[in-house]
Amino acid sequence: MEFDKDIASSSSHVLQIPREDTPLLSDTQHLSSSSKTFANVFIAVVGAGVLGLPYSFKKTGWVMGTLMLLSVASLTYYCMMLLVYSRRKLESHNKFAKKISSFGDLGYAVCGSIGRCTVDAMIVLSQAGFCISYLIFIANTLAYIFNYSVTNQEPKILGLSPKKVYIWSCFPFQLGLNSIPTLTHLAPLSIFADVVDLGAMGVVMVEDVLIFLKNRPVLEAFGGFSVFFYGLGVSVYAFEGVGMVLPLEAEMKDKDKFGKILGLSMAFISSMYGSFGVLGYFAFGEDTKDIITTNLGRGLLSTLVQIGLCINLFFTFPLMMNPVYEVMERRFCEGRYCFWLRWIVVLVVTLVALMVPNFADFLSLVGSSVCIVLGFVLPAMFHLIVFKKELRWHGLAFDAALVLVGAVLAVYGTYSSMLEIFGIKA
């Protein structure tokens, strides 16, 4: 059976490395409790995208940005559950029993090789996009800390801008980290990164409140339709982690409670995101920068927070790239470890990071393109195909509307984000 062969060829079965269907808080002996599943969802969803939310709120307005964020969170939860329902339905048939362990497996079960190829392509683009944003964040932050200039003229290092120097400085170290065949022992660093993120967010939010009470800048509630797609892309990007839903549900001890735990996790995360975005914009108004931590000034606490975030994103990079390597090595190297292929991918990611000037603009691009397709279009399409004989007309219509509207939003949102990145006025 081709499905079995395709699974067996996965590089993760040869090297036992993390892939898109490997939760970070894994437990090979026991299934996960509700609290552990909650933590896994938090780790899978929360990422660097939150740091671009205040800047997004500046563009969209704080009311429009909040409503958009909560709507995206609700729709993301709904589409995640569509994946779970589709997997459960297929696994109720003997021929698919215990075979659908990842998003790509579900794509194959529903649409054959085309489905798996589509999911694989979206996962490669999204995961690589996350890592590109990490490099941009690290470079921009280090340039702000160590090469700050009160003038508008950016200092040069060996004839290059500081951002380019810092990105290239990361390159040889990332070649080494991404060459490690087994990265399971790096998973705790990703967990630590989320702890640091929470701490950094707490520091930033306290500073935001104090600055707002002192300055009370002019604020805008609604930014207009022209920035709708920009804000949508950043919001979608912020809720990364759809590829982790199926393995998280599979590893939960009480699967009947998974929907409730996932809903509570998404509600907590969206509340945290909304508060962070609103407070950041309230504090700095029109002066809000694309990476909110650069608004904090140049104190010791601010510097430590920013350096801590850079270190943790630096070590999270190889973990986030592992799904890309799993797909690439399965496709081009028959599932075998290939260091030169990994080096080429790291080089491509580095070159793209050098070309993107703005952190939040890039979040919007990735969110508007691959994240919308991966998070909304494909789950609705798979659910529609699996349940087409059982859904009533309104269920069919809603799934079809998600597919069509998601596709339109992805195309137009990508176009809008590209205009923003290259400074072209529509």
UniProtKB/TrEMBL annotation:
Q: Which UniProt keywords apply?
A: Amino-acid transport, Membrane, Transmembrane, Transmembrane helix, Transport
Report the residue ranges that make up the Amino acid transporter transmembrane domain in this protein: 32-418
Q: Which InterPro entries match?
A: AA_transpt_TM
State whether keyword NAD applies: no
Intracellular or extracellular location(s): Membrane
Would I find Membrane among this entry's keywords? Answer: yes
Q: Could you tell me one molecular function GO term of this UniProt entry? A: L-amino acid transmembrane transporter activity
Q: Name one GO cellular component term.
A: vacuolar membrane
**Mainly resides where?**
membrane
Q: Which residues cross the membrane?
A: 38-57, 63-85, 123-146, 166-184, 191-213, 225-249, 261-284, 304-325, 337-356, 362-384, 396-415
> Which topology term describes how it sits in the membrane?
Multi-pass membrane protein
- What is the protein name stated in its UniProt record? Amino acid transporter transmembrane domain-containing protein
